[in-house]
Amino acid sequence: MLHTGETAEVKNVECVSKKTSPPPKYTVDSIITLMQKYGIGTSATMAEIVKKLQNPKRQSIVLENGVYSSTAFGRKFISVVPDELKSPELTKNIEEKLSQIGEGSLTKEDFLNDIIQDIRSYIDTVKGEADDLEKEIGICPVCNTPVLEKRFEYACATPECFKVGKHIKGKTIIPSMVKDLLQHGQTGWIKGFQGKKGAYTAKILFKNGKIEFEFPEQRHR
């Protein structure tokens, strides 16, 4: 056995070429089997739990071609949640405590006090990071990766590829404008940009991989 600072002679080196494969994605059946394994929910609530994860307002997973995939929001959300809170063991422990209440070995008051203390601790941990959750706006027309709504901008995985600030010339750029830009290559006419001569109207264009502007007077030339 080697110790720190010691050296050894290498007599033989063998190069082995191998390829790793990503784990298989969950199907409608296998995700329920996994939930049963870790005691997440009951037979009456498991399907509803999966359904809530697909709610468009906070969509964490999507079902495509019979398999589930995580969304950008789901991946970001799980990254800021404390390990204890996202562990299947937490749900399993809660289910066990509920059983103890039913058996009379644990009081409802003690259970609720423990839960409230844990929730307060989790909220304090997550509160500072929750604002950084990114929402998917559309697909980048150049690299075909999701364009996400970040804190100060809308950008794809490669910001040099597609990036639009949330505030341009005194005007707030809202998600619907960016969706138009991604789908049609331009926004509609946007009023309220601020310049040296006052407010003006313009369109935002995405041409040849760059953000440009079109003004009403250009249209009539």
Distance between the termini: 81 Å
What is the mean pLDDT? 84
Structural class: alpha+beta
- As a percent range, the share of strand residues is 15-25%
Low-confidence stretches: none
The biggest sheet amounts to: 4 strands, antiparallel
Number of E strands? 11
- The arrangement of helices and strands along the chain is HHEEHHHHEEEEEEHEEEH
Number of helices: 8
GO biological process, one term: DNA recombination
Protein name: DNA topoisomerase III
Keywords: Isomerase
Pfam family, one: Toprim_Crpt
Structure description:
The protein folds into 2 domains: 28-130, Topoisomerase I, domain 2; 135-219, no CATH class. It is 38% helix and 22% strand. The chain has 8 helices and 11 strands. The strands form 4 sheets. A 4-stranded antiparallel beta sheet has the order 3-4-5-6, covered by helices on one side. The protein has a 3-stranded antiparallel beta sheet with strand order 9-10-11. Strands 1-2 form a two-stranded antiparallel sheet.
Quick structural summary:
This protein is an alpha+beta fold.
List its traits.
2 domains, 221 residues, alpha+beta, Topoisomerase I, domain 2, extended, 3-stranded antiparallel beta sheet
Topology:
Blueprint lengths: L27 H10 L8 H8 L7 E4 L2 E4 L1 H9 L2 H4 L1 H16 L4 H23 L4 E5 L6 E4 L3 E3 L7 E3 L1 E2 L2 E2 L2 H10 L5 E6 L2 E10 L2 E5 L1 H4 L2
